[in-house]
Predict the structure.
Amino acid sequence: QVQLVESGGGLVQAGGSLRLSCAASGRIDSSYAMGWFRQAPGKEREFVAAISWNSGTTYYADSVKGRFTISRTNAKNTVYLQMNSLKPEDTAVYYCAAHLFPTATIQSFQYRYWGQGTQVTVSS
């Protein structure tokens, strides 16, 4: 079993920054690609960012490109999402997810394990 625990969410004003963390534990190792997704009220879950096992490949949704940065520290089994220049439309519950293969993917159905989510609220 794999556990993913997100942290770092909160309330921030537009233009501000937050850094989300996702700590993985259990039957997981650094060979897994990881991703971040988000779901706003009344909307479907959407892809935000993904990173391969060795950080060699990253993907971003167009809506966050240039503002968000995904990274990971394999020694700590932790993945991060640095969010800068936040906008009210970034308000959502953010989820991290683990893919059972090393290559990054933007497809949510390919992620096997999911965290419980952390709320990010951006006020205007």
